[in-house]
Amino acid sequence: MPSEFTNLKKALEDYMEAVSRIYKGKLQSDGHKATGKLIGSVKASVIIGSTQYIGELRLEDYWKYIEYGTKPHWPPKNAILRWIQAKPILPKAINGITPSQDQLAYLIGRKISQVGTKAGGELGQTIDEVNASFRPIIEAAVEKDLAGELTVIFNNF
Q: What is the full per-residue pLDDT of the chain (157 aa) written as tens digits?
């Protein structure tokens, strides 16, 4: 009969909850909250297979652009308009002329076409932080589960 490894399961669930909570906090504090869609999409779980435990973090597909940034490209105008409205970005008058939202979307798109977007790195930072604090917890959980398994094996021997 395979082991339940309940201590490891609990430690990994706590680990994934910490990744989720800290990542959401970093996104919030770093200004990646225009619509809240990415922050709201963060869902962590632990999947237990027959030979492995997998920590899974589900996110909106565009997380990778926030994490790693982008090379210069022309972004879709509608995406920029949605971002302007959600943020909200209020254009400032230049020489007495205030740009329309379409004009502002063009200016932002042009800038992205020239320099791309900056990488945030929040997820990588989060994983590094959580790994450092959870490594001893996970090691202790494995040791405790294995000690329990050895006790069962030797008692049945």
A: 346 789 999 999 999 999 999 999 999 999 888 888 999 999 999 999 888 999 999 999 999 999 999 999 999 999 999 999 988 888 888 888 999 999 999 999 999 999 999 999 999 999 999 999 999 999 999 999 999 877 777 777 6
Type and span of the H or E element at 55: strand 53-58
Q: Are residues 103 and 130 in the same domain?
A: no
CB contact at 8 A, 79 and 99: no
Tell which residue, 122, 9, 14, 4, has the closest CA to residue 69.
Answer: 122
Count how many domains the chain has.
2
Q: Clarify whether residues 113 and 155 are in a common domain.
A: no
Domain that includes residue 122, residue range:
1-68+118-157
Half-sphere exposure of 36 (CA within 13 A, CB side): 1
Do 130 and 62 have their domain in common? Answer: yes
